[in-house]
């Protein structure tokens, strides 16, 4: 037990493997706070000060002593075993949802009736000529109202 703190020290080996990581260059532990889940590091042998989940108050785990009772190499070995175990439980096809229903092809329409040709097609116009014929041109004043409304 630490001074002014009646809680036992937090053991790194007691935390879940997925909630602990060791920094590669220094092998210092980086872990998720057991209370709020925010990732934190060590500061003078204690949990670094951080805010609680509400973002306003300080987390009660801040300042709790931490005991690094597992070397980084052992933790990496345990993590590799956990990853291998999780891979065995996952489905082989990971690019689809687990319970996806197979897609059924869209059937062809039962009664296929050809669509009616447009006026431009009946007249033998090209698509370009038909598109220009339907535009409102400045010289085409048939669409404008001249009665003042």
| Helicity level | 10-25%
Spatial gap, N to C terminus: 90 Å
Q: Strand portion, in percent?
A: 5-15%
Radius of gyration, rounded? 35 Å
- What is the string of SSEs from the N terminus onward? EEEEEEHHH
Main sheet makeup? 4 strands, antiparallel
Number of helices: 3
Secondary structure tally: strands: 6
* Physical arrangement of strands within the biggest beta sheet: 2-3-4-5
Low-confidence spans: none
Morphology call: elongated
Describe the structure.
It is a single chain. The chain is elongated. The chain has a domain of 80 residues. The N and C termini lie far apart (90 Å). The mean pLDDT is 76. By secondary structure, the protein is α+β, with helices and mostly antiparallel strands. The chain has three helices and six strands. A four-stranded antiparallel sheet has the order 2-3-4-5. A two-stranded parallel ribbon has the order 1-6. The longest helix is centred in the middle third of the chain and has 18 residues. Helices cover 20% and strands 12% of the residues.
């Amino acid at each position: 037990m630490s001074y002014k703190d009646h809680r036992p020290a937090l053991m790194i080996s007691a935390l879940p493997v997925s909630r602990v990581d060791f920094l590669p260059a220094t092998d210092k532990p980086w872990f998720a706070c057991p209370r709020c889940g925010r990732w934190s590091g060590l500061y003078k042998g204690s949990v670094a000060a951080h805010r609680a989940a509400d973002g306003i108050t300080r987390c009660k785990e801040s300042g709790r002593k931490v005991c690094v009772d597992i070397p980084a190499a052992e933790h990496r070995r345990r993590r590799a075993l956990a990853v291998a175990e999780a891979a065995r439980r996952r489905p082989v096809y990971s690019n689809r949802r687990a319970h996806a229903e197979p897609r059924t092809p869209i059937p062809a329409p039962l009664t296929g009736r050809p669509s009616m040709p447009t006026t431009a097609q009946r007249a033998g116009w090209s698509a370009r000529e038909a598109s220009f014929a339907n535009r409102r041109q400045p010289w085409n004043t048939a669409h404008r109202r001249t009665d003042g409304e």
